[in-house]
Amino acid sequence: MDLPVLELNGLNKWFGPVHALKDIHFSLHSGEVCALLGDNGAGKSTLIKLIAGAEHIDHGELRISGNQVPASRYSVQQARRLGIETVYQSGSLGEQQSVWRNLFVGRHLRNRFGFIDHREERRRAARLLKTLDFRGVGANIEAPVSLLSGGERQGLAIGRAMLFDARVVILDEPTTALSVGEVEKVLSFVEQLREQGRACLLITHNMNDAYRVADRFVVMDRGKIVAQYRKSAMTRSSLQQALLDAVGQGAL
């Protein structure tokens, strides 16, 4: 098998006396969607913040495409340079800004004179929305984000990761509080990530969403990875039962 695009070896994190992450070993391959499951407080959010560079790694090894990344210099900016993009539940979008401006905020394209190239940004934004099959208000690159539906906002945030050629896309509860139709849109965006050969780490409490798009399921509890399952070996009901059994054994 090819080298993992993301690999964690012996990852640990403390917050004062609290041992938040305990000896995490995890890998993710290109073209794979992995669902990270667990109750509130299991350590999922802390783990993705470490991968995204938003929290400092206290101990352990992080590798991107086989290359070790010095933990002391790892940050959000470094993670992005290495191809790791995180889409949080809020989408981190500017409500009153246009669709195309949201795509490039903080990472503008510049012309040969060093000025922001608005024309090229608009062109690339229009091409991306066509790829994402945005329709109606969402297809208008000049529309303010406040007019977009919840699913379109998540799609825009995912599209931003595509635009900057992310190799790993982390999605934090992307379908929370969305209607059935909007959930379907977001899950189709996740499937596009896989089709494009990108790796995706999906954090969700919704077992149906996880089973629909994930190739693998990783279960966390109290800062540890306590179980892993491949979709090819599980039905939806057997996965649900496996998680219930883990709860019964005190793993969750």
UniProtKB/TrEMBL annotation:
The lineage of its organism: Bacteria, Pseudomonadati, Pseudomonadota, Gammaproteobacteria, Vibrionales. InterPro entries: AAA+_ATPase, ABC_carbohydrate_import_ATPase, ABC_transporter-like_ATP-bd, P-loop_NTPase. One of its GO terms (molecular function) is ATP binding. It holds the Pfam family ABC_tran. PANTHER family: CARBOHYDRATE TRANSPORT ATP-BINDING PROTEIN MG119-RELATED, SUGAR ABC TRANSPORTER ATP-BINDING PROTEIN. This is D-xylose transport ATP-binding protein XylG. Keywords: ATP-binding, Nucleotide-binding. Signal peptide: none annotated. Residues 6-247 form the ABC transporter domain.
